[in-house]
Specification:
The protein is 5% helix and 42% strand. The protein is mainly beta.
Length: 459
Amino acid sequence: MNMNLKSLLVPAAVALAAIPVTPLRAQTVLFKSDTARHVIYRIPALVAYGNTLLYFGDDRSGVTDATAWGDVGSEGNISIVARRSDNCGDTWHPEVQTVVEGKGSRGFDRAHGDAAVVCDRKSGKLLLLCASGEISYGRSDVRVARTPRDGGGYDYRLDLTKAQHAGRYYSTDGGRTWTGEDISGQIYALYDEASADTYAEGKGNVAVERLFFASGRICQSRQIKRGSHYRIYSVLTTNQGSLVVYSDDFGQRWKPLGGASARPAPQGDEAKIEELPDGRVLLSCRMMGGRCFNIFTYSNKSCTEGTWATPVASTSLSGGTASQRNATNGEIMIVPAKSAAGKKVFVALQSVPYGNNWSSTINVDRRSHVSIYWKVLASAADYATPEQFLTGWTRYEVTTARSAYSTMAIDGRGRLAFAYEDNGASKVIGSQPADVYDLTFISLPLEKITGGQYTYRKR
């Protein structure tokens, strides 16, 4: 889903920034795709707790026809797999663990992919959300079913038989075993605002007809605890744009941030969430040419109500978060840091493929040069509004190859654990082309990314 740049672009002065190109070679391929043997991996997700890293990906080797570009909803089975490191990525266990298995020819368990993950910092419990089922995002269609009620009248419910589904899985033993279920009904119902009377008149209109949780890192607040756990945030990719949801019981129940009518990025695609140093919520959306940013501000002390600002687009090649000729999901993270002189600041990190100016119409050709943009947040004024995130970014290049999705976490040593798709290729599967990548890992200290200007500091 592409975004209309004209509707989002906010004029701003361009802050020029140096763009060092420093390709790295000290990387580890954890999931190696092999087009000749029909071994296909996509979509990295990463979670860190202590010195342990869990690296997740889609095993799409079971896809026989990429009718949905190889995503959930294609012909064939897709499973979520993982590998583990107990020393911050220095070495990895050789075995590949099947976390959520795609099996069967129909229904919820046909396929699972696009993992979104978080580890609760207090209990160590792990949560994984994913897209599931046999229906692709593009074909998802939510209807309203009507059944007669005893004594007259009708009962109304959402009919999800033709909807893309959402899965929720938990692990309480460090990711070694997982249990889960289909939570599609709960999530779609968050945005079902029409009344039974409206349905009875044949005018019912379900607002959200398709959705999935955006892959990668689920954000956990460091400041807000209103239930059993510190609050977590995730983003739904929907036909209504990017919608943000939160949970105060570690994913058991969800609520729309800003209410069911809130549309923080109406033309948004896949997105990520980060908590600002003052507790407000930063949304970073995938868009053609760069990223779209918005901020949610709470209006009450209970942190249940508030408002979204107006989304803005950062696409400049000089000082912006440009992604030339492609729209690809990345990761947003804000880390505490200190300057060489000892000043305490925050550094915002945004990963995205810088891309190229090739004229190719093949998606994998346009996605390349995965980079990490960084920007110093020295005071509250530097993150007061979405406009502050338009410019002032410097690009650190991670790879020069065809590369796409990426995510990141801070490991137990205070380094950036970075997961990304690299060495991209295009493969025809059945009747349709599909992108194929190696799922790759690299460990980066903050001073490497910032050219020695800033180092990570513990909160």
